[in-house]
Design a protein that fits this description.
This protein is α+β, with helices and mostly antiparallel strands. The protein is built from 15 helices and 22 strands. The longest helix is centred in the N-terminal third of the chain and has 22 residues.
Length: about 650
């Protein structure tokens, strides 16, 4: 694919960057285009950027502040990375915006910082940007403007934030106050940093607040802000914490390259996906904090590959703007708190510009990603994930047995699997967390009409009226090697009983074999969907009695094959189509299996799930795995003679 000409990029360098062709100059040009594109949407004093698009629930003024703050972070990377040698209008715009935004009489003043207000998020970006550009902006501000900025930030002192990554916004902003000699609360800073210790679960992983909240926030928030705080605090005032944060980030980054496909795409999972290449923030921070285990050439290959991936697919768009979506605008993948400037948290993906031009990450030759060298299998017990990359097509898949974005059950004993109501206190199932699998080549069906059907990458009980059960709270059981398992509760309308669905995923070659143990009432039906594939045209679809397949015009194939326990007959497999329900394109399709009505009690279903750019022959796949069920034991035997008991 070629990059849109409106970006006006320099020529590629295939000697230094044999994989992507991109250099630091490409990053600078992309940043400049994104910043220049914002100016038509600035208020007269440059305190707000009021971009086109759906507004957030916080209102137009807050959205305008968001446009200033998040783009200021991008401008800071560009200004500081160039040692101030940028177009003077760039620093002038943001200096003027600081003056107008903190002036109550300007007509474009920012809202005051109040408890749990959106302004807290944006203030943290402003604090980081001010610190990084101190010689060129803060130090040159009029004393009166500096006082007004300090007064605005003071709303953090003693304030209350949401009890998740928001605690770190307070930490960073108050540390900036300390750095300029303004009043601040040491207990606020220490309390926020102490709180994230409760969420550290090992192997470099945090959960974002209580519960099993694992997604890109771990990298672009939980790892990022503590080390940004350390940059502001300095080595003499970090209390030894920075060394701990560097060690944790280093461990996190050991596995992190496995989340990226050969085409640069990150795995499409979790919330706030409109931030896109903000997923690169921990990669750059590892280099900035001198704690990365990644070779310099791998760091740049990963980062440039991801930025180029989006540029090749129209991000930023022809106006130079980031829209609410993944490639194009797609509101079902956003949240109500997302406004038209929310995607500019993508600015975190440009932190690498803070590294000098002669740093090794910019001068070393690119190295291949893990998925470009071999098939990969990575077990991540902390979040309950298996990552599975295949070299021949460059796709990475994430098998999910641990992240559900739900709070822990109130007053529940986490070791007690007999809890009468395992979903007590859980919210609705979120398609970006509740699915059995995600990938770098697909997105979940997430429009409301598709959510009601709940087909893709789900194993559901189907009531007689067609209502599917939901996968809400996930209870991890196992995650090691190429095997992961979990269970979840299932309910059906008009039935007060809680049924249990247990699933074990086994990876073998390019396949995922799913073994399901299902408790059900008499007459219920089990349905399982594969990956949703999507594109500009309606995917090709085909099915047989025990398999179904969907394929896009560019050859991406999703298939499911019944191996044991389905017995659905002529209606046992099909492909469901939808429109405007997928972030990857307006036309989508999901292959699925459907069982015959069950007798009730315990049943076992085994299926083979495929997502590949190779040719897929479902009839042949039925013979690729032998399944033997003996009581509670399910033994899988593969063509190479290997055996796995699930």
């Amino acid at each position: 694919m070629s990059v849109a000409p409106h970006l006006q990029l320099p020529p590629t360098d295939r000697v230094l960057s044999s994989r992507t062709g991109w250099t630091r100059a490409h990053w600078e040009a992309t940043a400049d285009r994104m910043l220049d594109a914002l100016t038509p949407y600035a208020t007269p004093g440059f305190a707000q950027y009021r971009l086109p698009g759906r507004g957030s629930w916080s209102g137009v003024v807050s959205d305008g502040l968001e446009g200033f703050a998040r783009s200021f972070l991008l401008a800071a990377c560009r200004i500081a990375g160039a040692g101030g040698a940028v177009d003077p209008s760039l620093t002038e715009r943001y200096a003027a915006g600081l003056a107008a935004g903190t002036d109550p009489g300007s007509g474009e003043a920012w809202p005051r910082l109040t408890d749990c207000s959106q302004q807290m998020v944006e203030a943290a970006s402003i604090a980081v940007a001010l610190h990084e550009t101190r010689p060129w902006i803060w130090d040159r501000l009029d004393a009166g403007v500096q006082e007004r900025v300090v007064d605005w930030f003071s709303g953090f002192v003693g304030g209350r934030t949401w009890d998740n990554n928001w605690r770190l916004f307070q930490v960073v902003a108050e540390q900036f106050l300390a750095s300029v000699g303004a009043p601040y609360s040491r207990s606020d800073i220490e309390g926020g940093l102490d709180r994230i210790e409760d969420w550290y679960v090992g192997d470099g992983w945090y959960t974002d607040g209580d519960g099993r909240n694992f997604d890109y926030y771990i990298g672009w928030a939980m790892h990022l802000y503590p080390l940004l705080w350390a940059r502001i605090a300095g080595p003499d005032d970090d209390g030894g914490r920075a060394a701990v944060y560097r060690e944790r980030l280093s461990r996190f980054l050991e596995d992190y390259p496995h989340f990226f496909g050969a085409d640069g795409a990150p795995v499409h999972q979790g919330r706030s996906l409109a931030y896109r290449f903000a997923s690169l923030a921990p990669v750059w921070m590892g280099a900035l904090a001198d704690c990365t285990p990644l070779a310099p050439g791998l760091t740049r290959r990963l980062a440039s590959g991801t930025l180029r991936h989006f540029a090749e697919r129209g991000v930023p768009d022809e106006r130079g703007l980031l829209t609410l979506g993944w490639y194009d605008t797609f509101l079902p993948s956003t949240q109500p708190y997302s406004g038209p400037a929310s995607p500019y948290w993508a600015s975190k993906g440009f932190l690498g510009l803070l590294l000098p031009a002669d740093h090794a990450v910019w001068t070393a030759r690119e190295l291949p990603l893990p998925v470009e060298e071999s098939d990969t299998y990575t077990a991540l017990p902390a979040p309950g994930w298996l990552l599975h990359g295949t070299r021949h097509d460059g796709i990475v898949r994430l098998v999910n047995h641990g992240s559900d974005h739900n709070p822990p059950a109130p007053d529940a004993d986490p070791s007690d699997s007999s809890e009468a109501d395992p979903d007590r206190g859980a919210g609705e199932d979120d398609p970006h967390y509740a699915k059995l699998a995600y990938s770098t080549a697909t997105a979940p069906e997430s429009a409301p009409h598709a959510l009601a059907r709940n087909i893709d990458n789900q194993l559901a009980l189907i009531a007689p009226d067609g209502t599917p059960s939901r996968r809400r709270r996930i209870h991890p059981l196992r995650c090691e090697g190429r095997v992961a398992a979990s269970w979840s509760a299932a309910r059906l309308p008009g039935d007060e009983r809680v049924y249990r669905i247990g699933t074990t995923s086994v990876l073998h070659g390019p396949w995922e074999i799913r073994v399901h143990r299902v408790d059900s009432p008499e007459g219920a039906v089990v349905r399982e969907g594969g990956y949703a594939v999507a594109g500009p045209a309606s995917p090709f679809a085909s099915s047989g009695p025990d398999w179904a397949l969907a394929r896009t015009a560019d050859g991406l194939t999703s298939a499911v094959v019944a191996l044991y326990g389905w017995d659905g007959g002529a209606d046992g497999a099909a492909v469901a189509r939808d429109v405007e329900s997928n972030a990857y394109g307006p036309h989508s399709a999901v292959p699925y299996l459907r069982s015959a009505p069950l007798p009730g009690g315990r049943s076992v279903q085994v299926s083979l799930v495929v997502l590949s750019r190779d040719s897929v022959h479902p009839e042949a796949l039925r013979t690729a795995v032998r399944v033997r069920v003996d009581g509670d034991a399910v033994v899988l035997t593969f063509l190479d003679g290997s055996r796995v008991e699930a």
